[in-house]
Amino acid sequence: MLDKIEKDHYYHIFNRGINSTIIFATEDNMTYFLKLVKKHLTDKVDIIAYCLMNNHFHFIVKIIEDNNKATQAFSNLFNAYAKAFNKQQNRTGTLFERPYKRIRIDNESYLKNLILYVHRNPENHNLIKNFQDYRFSSFNAYLKNKESIISKTKDYILSMFEDIDNFKHAHHTYQSGFENLADLNSRH
């Protein structure tokens, strides 16, 4: 059963393409998706972390708006992106698995582990040798003094890791001990 989205709670939001199909064919698709995230989500949720992969994505968010408005915002995001992607790729039909997955994050330890897991995802999937070099995760946004979709929560999250040096160290020394995301989520 999926967790119900509730205001003032943290969630891991993730999904993949239907039948594990590609949902981001190009980097431009990923850039466009993040623009839609900013348009549809940033006044309804605080974005803690994200990672976009070619056939799936992960977001860690805190809901800051009424449940129904936040749920509708996710729906609007996914529908807007699917419509544009289908048009660009000359395809029809559902793009994402339904319903999108959401798991409530109920403690700080789980939140910290999930942030590490999400940021290291491209390396874990052998997409890139070093997760730090991946452009479509929020890891580098934490290291730069530049406005981004995680700006509202950046200082709070860095303080959970004590400071930026410990944030980087935790990422470099992270060994999840989990075979996959299901293992991580089942132990929260």
Describe the structure in brief.
This protein has 188 residues and is an alpha+beta fold. 44% of the residues lie in helices and 15% in strands. The chain is built from 7 helices and 4 strands, in the order E-H-E-E-H-E-H-H-H-H-H.
Structural features, described:
44% of the residues lie in helices and 15% in strands. With 188 residues, the protein is of the alpha+beta class. It has a single domain, classed as 2-Layer Sandwich (Alpha-Beta Plaits), CATH 3.30.70.1290. The mean pLDDT is 91.
Give a quick set of tags describing it.
4-stranded antiparallel β-sheet; alpha+beta; Alpha-Beta Plaits; 188 residues
| Straight-line distance between termini | 15 Å
Radius of gyration in whole Å, from Cα? 16 Å
Q: Give the ordered list of helices and strands.
A: EHEEHEHHHHH
CATH superfamily: Transposase IS200-like
The top-level CATH class is Alpha Beta
Content-based structural category? alpha+beta
Indicate the topology.
Elements: E1 10-16, H1 27-40, E2 45-52, E3 56-63, H2 67-89, E4 101-105, H3 108-124, H4 139-143, H5 154-160, H6 164-173, H7 181-186
Antiparallel strand pairs: 1-3, 1-4, 2-3
Helix pairs in contact: 1-2
